[in-house]
Amino acid sequence: MHTRRIGDVEVSAIGLGGMPMSIEGRPDEARSLATLHAALDAGVTLIDTADAYHRDADEVGHNETLIAKALASHDRGKDVLVATKGGHLRPGDGSWTLDGSPRHLKEACEASLRRLGVEAIGLYQFHRPDPRVPYAESVGALRELLDEGKIRMAGISNANPDQIREAEEILGGRLVSVQNQFSPAFRSSEPELRLCDERGIAFLPWSPLGGIAKAGELGSAYAPFARVAEAHGVSPQQVCLAWMLAKSPVVVPIPGSSRPETIRDSLAAAELRLSEKEFAELDAV
């Protein structure tokens, strides 16, 4: 597995997003554990989760608990950087709410520590800006958690360029990652990706396969991904992730998965090399 860096930690070039294993439509626990173990077997050393990745109101942190169980039962579990998030909530009715208050973020961090069974969280990320709370106060809570040793690294998610710069200043240059939505169907985070590239901050695209459905369902807008996939004898999903990796060395995609076969397919993208012509064609979509 090729590697990239988040802060001072070397991680697999492609990580695993845990959300599909815990929200609506999730598989049973056995398949989820098989998926997590398949990722570890294939060399994944970055798993992304959040306390809000759950379905019902009484199971906050379902995904964190699941990941902790998978890591504890695998001989490579200790090699994994677990990235979790706080500041988003799910009341249990399918909706998502926000609480970016420092008090909530600190309480959420403590709860995540207990569920993950660790003394310090590897990467803790502010999940989404809360318009009711000044951004500086929310990120200030991450700074305090860093200073207290509760978290080893700090990141932000769903942030714009101004918020990235503000977080860098508040954290005293200790911002290591930005996790934004980015995919062929969602390109509006290009400015954030470019800024992260300039600053050497890891950029973690969430939902990176948006627009890349099964090969037979690709819309005409994304047909180049299907053509390149056919030329290489691989899936369009692999081509999509290879294109992202080629955009910048700071990009670390975290495709979600709930089946062993899909995460294995995604991870193979780290070995796929696109020609300059292929990259340009895909980047112009």
Poorly predicted residue ranges: none
Elements, N to C (H/E): EEEHEHEEEHEHEHEHEHHHH
Strand order of the largest sheet: 3-4-5-8-9-10-11
Tally of contiguous helical segments: 10
Number of strands: 11
First and last CA, distance: 28 Å
Strand and helix layout:
Layout: E1 3-6, E2 9-12, E3 16-17, H1 29-41, E4 46-48, H2 62-72, E5 81-86, E6 88-89, E7 97-98, H3 102-116, E8 123-126, H4 135-148, E9 154-157, H5 161-170, E10 175-181, H6 190-199, E11 202-206, H7 223-232, H8 236-247, H9 260-267, H10 276-283
Parallel strand pairs: 3-4, 4-5, 5-8, 8-9, 9-10, 10-11
Antiparallel strand pairs: 1-2, 6-7
Helix pairs in contact: 1-2, 1-9, 3-4, 4-5, 7-8
TL;DR?
With about 280 residues, the chain is α/β, with parallel strands linked by helices. It has helices spanning about 30-40, 60-70, 100-115, 135-150, 160-170, 190-200, 225-230, 235-245, 260-265, 275-285; strands at about 5, 10, 15, 45-50, 80-85, 90, 95-100, 125, 155, 175-180, 200-205.
What does this structure look like?
It contains ten helices and eleven strands. The strands form three sheets. The chain has a seven-stranded parallel sheet with strand order 3-4-5-8-9-10-11, with helices on one face. Strands 1-2 form a two-stranded antiparallel sheet. A two-stranded antiparallel sheet has the order 6-7. The longest helix has 15 residues. It starts with a strand and ends with a helix. The relative contact order is 0.14. The model has no long low-confidence stretch (mean pLDDT 95). It is an alpha/beta fold and 285 residues long. Helix content is 39%, strand content 15%.
